[in-house]
Amino acid sequence: MSLQQASATRQHDELSHAVFVPPVDHASAKAPDEYAAAQKFLIEHDIRAVDCMVVDTWGIPRGKRLPVAAFLEERGMSIGKAIYSSEVDAFLGDSPWIGVSSGYPDMRAVPDLQTLRVAGWGDRLATVMCDCVYIESGEAIPLDPRSMVKRTLQEFDALNYRVDLAAELEFYLYDRNWELVSQEIGLFNLTGLQDLDEILSPIVESLLATGIKVESSSAEYSPGHIEITQRYDEALAALDKTILFKHVVRQTAHRLGYNVSFMAKPSTAAGGSGMHMHLSLVERGGSNVFGLVDEDHPLGSSVMRRFASGLLHHQLDLQAVTHPTINEYKRSTDYSFAPNRVTWGIDNRSAGVRCLPRIGSASRLEVRWASAAAHPYLLAQGYLQAGLSGLRNEFPLIDQCVSDAYADSRWERIADQPEDAIARFEASPFTQEVYGPDFVETFCAMQRKELQRFTEHVTDWEIARYRGRL
Length: 470
Prior knowledge:
The chain is an alpha+beta fold. It is built from 15 helices and 15 strands. The longest helix has 21 residues, at 235-255.
């Protein structure tokens, strides 16, 4: 066995060991007891507690830590509905979703046992993703983004498609005092990467121990800027792992005395951190339909072309989701590798949709608009529904961007003010249908409250520029 084969086998064994696989009994009409199997998994791994996660409207994991006995007995937990309308700092105020007059009631978080796994960042700890439902009826909470994506994937399943996905994330690494760990520009700098091995190696090990397959680590252009890429997976599993990825990286760094930021642009001099989402559709027979050449078009695949046309048709409708904070707008500047025009191109990183066609099973669309601070489930919900819209409506595909997207005046530019993006998201029939009116109303109220907070805050720039001169 070669060294490469041995390494791949070791990683496969670690991943298989870390993730619970619910039992399936095809021979019996009686459903197997998943919790009995989960109990065995937890005992085998000597787990003392389970972190039950719910992801809020900012993409931040919230939840509770349950001792194993309580997790197995209760099979869920109560948690406040207000997490879906809290501010990014968890401050609770009034919103269209919930407010003081409601008494801040609970909902029920139900573990999805297919996501139960060892928590590689903790001591004898496991974790599981939860779906939120009304206590009274058991119906899905309309603001639960994970449940939105599950319903969308059922629509693809009805078309005989499976969605494969990978989210490519960048982040900044700081010491305990929030000073960058490196002061050198280091794009693909292996020496600089080795200098950070004492922190990056434990992060990768924690990811592997959590069942997240790592493909590579690399230094990005700016000092302290890192990218760790994950292996693609079926869409929901990939999105769950994207949430966990950010949590694992942050928790492992904190344990070792470091800080991490997935903020879109953490300083004026810093390059932006992106969340580039790679998408492909796979037929039930196993073929990636984006790689099936069936027409005389640069993309080759009619399915890829139609999917891309939907992404581009609805991109401006989705900008409030791809740019959820005012900081995102500082990332989306010209020549920043962050796209700010409605464009597509073949292997063109200045375009909003980078298309990689005619390469068989690896054919895919890379949607590059969002930052690393965006919400993975909300992004996927918008992108996938936009793609469905393209498949169903045959929108004309705009011309390909074959050179510099920033320099060509033909391309429509995204809104340069968050107020405009929020207003469009609120008024769009597409987003109202895709996310639901309850979510749209609450999300827009939260966005406007966040802008109000920013407007009221006196910035360091204002003080440095005006205090001694005016």
